Amino acid sequence: MRGPPGVSAKQTPELKSVAHRTTRRLGKERMDFRIRPRGGVPLAKVPLLAVATVLIAGCTPGPQDALAPAGPVGVMESNLYNLIFWIAVVVFVVVEGLLVYAVIRYRRRPNDGIPAQVHGNTTLEITWTIIPVLILIAIAVPTLTTIASAAGTTSSNGSVNVKVVGHQWWWEFDYPDLGVVTADELHIPVGTRVNLTVESADVIHSFWVPKLGGKIQAIPNRVNTMWFQADQPGEYYGQCYQLCGTSHANMRFRVFAQSKADFDKWVADQKAVPATPTDAQAQKGAQVFATGPCVGCHTIAGTKAQAKIGPDLTHFGGRTTIAGAMMENTPENLAKWLKDPPSIKPGSLMPNYHLSDDQVNALVAYLESLK
Ligand code: CUA
C-alpha cells in the first residue's frame, strides 16, 4: 500500500521497534499454542484427529451410503459424483497451492520498498477464463447425460411401473398395472428396471433411495419420473430428502428387492382380499375399525373402509414397519402408535382419538391379522 505523500517507504526506527515487539509477541503466542491443555490432547494434533475421524467414519458404509451403489442408476450417479469430486480436488489443490506459494514467495520482507505496481495482464486473464470454461464443460457434459439416463419412462418392456405419492409423512406406492397399493414398503423384483412416477398429495417431498438412485422431488400437481434397478436382493433404506414439515425426518421407507418368484408371490398376496378374522379379539377390532374414526381415512379391501387419506391398510400385518417406517411392526409399537400418534410422530395428521386400552388391543389384533 502506498504511504502518505512525503513519508519514506523505508522503516523508521519507531516502526522497526514496533515490528520487533510484535514479532516477539507472536513468537510467544506460537509457544503458548504448543502447550498441552491440562488433561487434553495437544492442540496441534486436533486437525490430525479431525481428518482421522472423517477417514475412519468413511470406512464403514452405512445402509444409506450413496457411494456404495447397488444398481445401475446408483452406479451412474456415484460415478458422476466421483468425477466432480476429483475435479474439485485438483482445482482446490492448484488454487490453494498458488495462493500459499504467492503468500510465501512474495511476503513482505524487512527493507522492502513499494512493490512493482501491476495493472492487468491479458494473457493471464484469458487463461483464467478459458480454464474454468473447460472445467465447466467437463462437468456439464457427463452431468446432463447422467440426468437424461436416470430419467424414467413408463413404457419400457418387462419393467415394473410404480406411482409414488409423497404424503405428510408417509409414502404411497401404487402399482397401476398390477392392481396393488401399499405404503412405506416398496417391493421390487431384482435385476428388473423399475419406472417410477413421483408425485405429491400435499407439499414438496423428495424421494431418495441412496444405494439405488434418486433423489427426485415429489411436487404437487407435477409428475416427475426416474427409474432404478437393484442388482442384488436385499432391503434398501429410503428417506424423504426435502424439508416438508414437522416430521420430515420421520418420513422414511424401505425397498425390498426380491427374486422374481418372491415378488410374484408378494403381488398375488397383495391382490387377495384378507381373510375375515376368526379370532374373537380381532373380530372385535374389525368392528372398532368399521364403526370408529378409522374408516374416515383408511382403506381395507373387502370392507367398507375405502377412504384414501391415510395409508392403505389392506395387508398391514404383512409389513415390517409402521408409521412411515419409523418403528418395527410389533403389537407393542402399534399399540403405542394407536394410543397417541402425534406423541410418536410430531405433527401426525392422525390425531389422538383417546381410544380405550380395550379398543387399542382389539385394533392391534385385527390390524396384525391383515396379512
Ligand atoms: Cu417429506 Cu420431507
Named CATH architecture of the largest domain? Sandwich
Query: For the largest beta sheet, what order do the strands appear in spatially?
Result: 3-2-1-5-8
Q: Structural class of the helices, strands and pairings? A: alpha+beta
Give the overall shape, derived from the CA principal axes: elongated
Q: Which small molecules are bound? A: dinuclear copper ion
* Multimeric state: single chain
Specify the CATH class of the largest domain. Answer: Mainly Beta
Reported by name, the CATH topology of the largest domain is: Immunoglobulin-like
Q: State which percent range the strand residues make up.
A: 15-25%
Structurally, the number of domains stands at 2
Weakly predicted, low-confidence segments: 1-13, 15-19, 21-37
CATH superfamily grouping of the largest domain: Cupredoxins -  blue copper proteins
The major pleated sheet works out as: 5 strands, mixed
Total of DSSP H or I helical runs spanning 4+ residues: 9
Would you kindly provide a written description of the structure presented here, covering whatever features stand out?
With 371 residues, this protein is α+β, with helices and mostly antiparallel strands. It folds into two domains: 61-102 and 122-261, Cupredoxins -  blue copper proteins (Immunoglobulin-like), CATH 2.60.40.420; 280-368, Cupredoxins -  blue copper proteins (Immunoglobulin-like, Sandwich). The protein has nine helices and twelve strands. It has a five-stranded mixed beta sheet with strand order 3-2-1-5-8. The protein has a five-stranded mixed beta sheet with strand order 4-10-9-6-7. The radius of gyration is 31 Å and the shape is elongated. It starts with 12 loop residues before the first helix and ends with a helix. It binds dinuclear copper ion. Dinuclear copper ion (CUA) is lined by residues 166, 169, 205, 240, 242-244, 248, 251.
